[in-house]
Amino acid sequence: MFSRLYVLWCASLFLTACDRSPPAPSQKPPGGSSAAASAPAPPRPLPGAHEHDPGEAAEHIHLAPHRGMLIVLSDHQAHLELVLDEQAGRMTFYVLDGECEKPIRLSQESMEVELRVIYSKQEPAPTEFSLTLQARDNPLTGETTGDSSEFTAESEKLVGLKRFTGRIARIVALGVEHAGLLIEFPEGGE
Hints:
Blueprint: H1 2-18, H2 35-38, E1 50-51, E2 61-62, E3 69-73, E4 78-85, E5 90-97, E6 110-120, E7 127-135, E8 150-154, E9 161-173, E10 176-185, E11 188-189
Antiparallel strand pairs: 1-2, 3-4, 4-5, 5-8, 6-7, 6-9, 7-8, 9-10, 10-11
């Protein structure tokens, strides 16, 4: 008799312990606060992310994979990501697909950029200069000059650079030519 009661008692403890599932979103958890109020806020996009117009999906944002600044090409069919290493004096452009996930290789060997420095540690007064970014070979991806998604240049004039505007003379991505493409760093582009 004692063993039957003991087994029933253990079974009831087991069954009540297994039924401790969290409350459904429509229910209020103990304490009276709503589950929605305690839900974590959605993550913020990283610097270099851009959002679409209010008419487009609110969740549709692009994150710059190299933590740079994004410039839209061909009505969001492609992007340029500008990465500036102001300490090394290096500027790099990565050509990316519409979702900023995959590289897009270009047949051009270089990109010409006209820059107007708004503020630099070295040049507090506005100055202008040209920069040629060369296609970068990458043995890991098989990219070569004339078949590359990465373009880079180094210059002492880029050291300490904080704010600038500029124009990319010409870029052809996905069969669409872009001439005079605006850059506003660090705010963004077209």
